[in-house]
């Protein structure tokens, strides 16, 4: 797994993907941060809420090549026949993307430190925001990784990832228009926005933590099953 992790991290920066992702993330987070300080505020919750929407567009950049590129270059056959577990392969790629995601998220901590020089910060809220962003990222990355395992076309993987993430993120809006009560409630409960919003106010709800972790585990499991089918086909 560590070999795959190092390989994928290296590939992010031998190509332009890693630089593009970080540049876009830093640009938008910096813009949102500037909007906060321009009104003499030290509340970063709006920054994290805004980043929620940005991630829908940029996480597919991280995940589109994770499996698709190997299939296109036919190196997936080498990986599938190598003496390593499929779980190790999947989690190596997953953790590589999550590491780069965390590197982007880290700048929000710098914003908080800068603001703390001018006013006492509520660090429990900051920690809740960062934890929520990392959990959201883990869930989105696992979904993107799964979609990438279904096609060798990186564009299709990116568009597919965006479509699924968009649907999950607006699920609460969809739930409001569903006339059937139990179905509306179900959609509301699986909405990523519904689960993510409490983190931005510093509320660490165990059910929300477990929800995002469960999504990550389930989709990584599904990716392993896809690779297992390819190994024996």
SSE map:
Elements: H1 2-14, H2 17-37, H3 45-63, H4 68-73, H5 76-81, H6 86-116, H7 123-148, H8 154-169, H9 171-176, H10 181-190, H11 192-196, H12 206-232
Helix-residue proportion: over 70%
- Cα(first) to Cα(last) distance is 23 Å
Mean pLDDT: 89
Report the major sheet: none
Number of helices: 12
Return the string of H and E elements. HHHHHHHHHHHH
How big a fraction of the residues is strand? Answer: under 5%
Radius of gyration: 19 Å
- Ranges where pLDDT stays below 50 over 5 or more residues in a row are none
Number of domains: 1
Written account of the structure:
35% of the residues are buried. The chain is built from 12 helices and no strands. By secondary structure, it is mainly alpha-helical.
Short description:
With 233 residues, the chain is mostly helical. Helices cover 80% and strands 0% of the residues.
Overview features:
mainly alpha, globular
